[in-house]
Design brief:
globular
């Protein structure tokens, strides 16, 4: 099986998993949206969005080093040593972060402008963070081993437990609050963590080898500063909205982001499969054409999703969250753009990873993060949550452009530059049009959707033809099986 076929196969499995877990997550969120006020929803979004920042700081580039050395090494004992060092370091770093936040509890509460009765949220938040660190490490280890079925099972289990508990509160108890939700999150993450520890073999540990740690930290240290920058690209908008606007507005923004995250269901599957397959195919098999083929398939699929979600955002919000959140439907298009751009970054910065010049990854992230922070402060002041969505989209596109520029100069890969540029132009122009037509009649938005799909097919004819053939084969296979029965 070719590297591309293997990538698409594993991506399909991860996409199925992402679809199931995503539906469970969205079902949970939209039950919360119908049970809580917009302000309470804003508090949940604020706290949950802080977890990736702290996780990135605790990781400090060590997981990127683990991915590289895991595939660069053929010795299973050496691999286990790399895993052990990474796990011990990340666990110790997360403990230090938790202790620091506990010591600075009053400062954190004042900075986030929490009400007096919300201080208990911080305790639950730290517990969720500690569990997420362990869950994320075990999940990444499954992916390194290409044990995608186990990784998928644990993701589904986690989200199913959380969804079931929230559904019980929603339908049976009839009362729900932020504290209950945080408690449900803790229980939902704890169960798969216990199961994953047994399956990954992290206990007993191989110990902490300082020589191995220095080698890994040297590789990953440029990411130490980019970790915070990644947060500012993806989550600074929430913090700025909370500081410069209101928590209620943050609740509206959270609903729009969850709708935009529908586009991330397919992208998450690709992102999960990309790094292990790319490193294996390039470092071991020497297949340098994989990034070129992958970006074309990625752009075709994400453009289709972009037009579908953006054109139908009004109906999706009305069905899932209710009429009170319809005012946020216009910003969905910009948030979808940022999600797609962030996914493309994983592919386009491959040359930086292969060339082991991660300082340029840090430059991309820090620059884009600083731009995002500045634009959010400026745009939120002017346009509120609309400005936040636009700032996030622009900074994400900037990070992709910089990644492509540096990657092609460090370790050139045969990317289709003209198609990438054409896709960027189509998405940019379409984004402006779809924002203006967000509240247009349903028929108008359907016409724009059909036009967008036609443009996507013209831009990527090979991928469109392969997609049609695949659908035709699946349909014929189903029809023949049904007829034979």
């Amino acid at each position: 099986m070719s590297s591309l076929a293997n990538l698409l196969k594993i991506s399909a499995i991860y996409t199925t998993t992402s679809g199931i877990t995503g539906l469970l997550t969205m079902g949970t969120f939209f039950m919360l949206a119908r049970s809580l006020t917009a302000a309470e929803l804003g508090y949940i979004e604020l706290f949950i969005s802080m977890v990736p920042l702290l996780a990135a700081l605790a990781e400090s580039g060590i997981l990127s080093a683990l991915s590289y050395y895991y595939y660069a090494s053929e010795d299973e004992t050496a691999r286990r040593r790399y895993v052990s060092v990474a796990h011990i370091f990340q666990t110790a770093a997360s403990v230090l972060i938790i202790l620091a936040l506990l010591l600075l509890k009053d400062v954190v509460c004042r900075f986030l402008e929490l009400p007096p009765d919300a201080g208990v949220y911080l305790f639950f938040f730290l517990l969720i963070f500690a569990l997420e660190i362990q869950f994320g490490f075990c999940r990444d280890l499954f992916r390194l081993r290409i044990e995608y079925k186990r990784s998928a099972a644990m993701m589904i289990l986690r989200n199913l437990v959380i969804f079931s508990a929230v559904l019980y509160f929603y339908l049976v108890v009839g009362e729900f609050n932020v504290r209950n939700y945080f408690l449900v999150l803790c229980c939902g993450i704890l169960l798969p963590v216990i199961l994953m520890f047994g399956k990954t073999g992290l206990i007993p540990s191989e110990g902490f080898d300082t020589t191995v740690f220095r080698r890994m930290f040297k590789y990953g240290r440029p990411l130490l500063f980019s970790a915070a920058a990644i947060y500012f690209i993806n989550y600074a908008d929430r913090l700025i909205i909370q500081k410069l606007s209101t928590t209620t507005e943050l609740g509206y923004y959270a609903v729009a982001f969850k709708v935009a995250a529908i586009s991330g269901l397919a992208i998450q599957g690709f992102q999960s499969a990309w790094a292990p397959i790319m490193l294996k195919s390039t470092l071991r098999e020497g297949d340098l054409d994989l990034p070129k083929k992958s970006i074309a398939h990625y752009l075709f699929i994400t453009l289709v999703i972009f037009f579908c979600v953006s054109c139908l955002a009004h109906e999706i919000i009305w069905i899932l969250a209710g009429k009170m959140y319809l005012r946020s439907s216009g910003i969905v298009v910009f948030l979808v753009m940022s999600i797609i751009a962030f996914g493309a970054y994983d592919i386009l910065h491959s040359g930086i990873v292969l060339g082991k010049r991660l300082i340029f990854h840090a430059i991309c992230m820090i620059t884009a993060g600083a731009v995002n922070l500045a634009l959010n402060i400026l745009f939120v002041t002017w346009w509120g949550i609309k400005g936040a969505a636009l700032a996030t989209a622009l900074s994400s596109i900037l990070s992709v452009a910089m990644a492509y520029f540096f990657s092609q100069r460090i370790s050139p890969l045969p990317f289709p530059g003209r198609k990438i540029l054409a896709a960027l132009i189509v998405v940019s122009i379409s984004g402006i049009v779809l924002y203006q037509c967000a509240l247009a009649p349903f028929v108008t938005r359907v016409a724009l959707l059909l036009l967008g799909l036609i443009l996507t097919g013209l831009l990527f004819p090979t991928e469109a033809s392969a997609f049609r053939n695949h659908i035709r084969e699946k349909f014929n296979s189903f029809a023949n099986g049904f007829t034979n029965q």
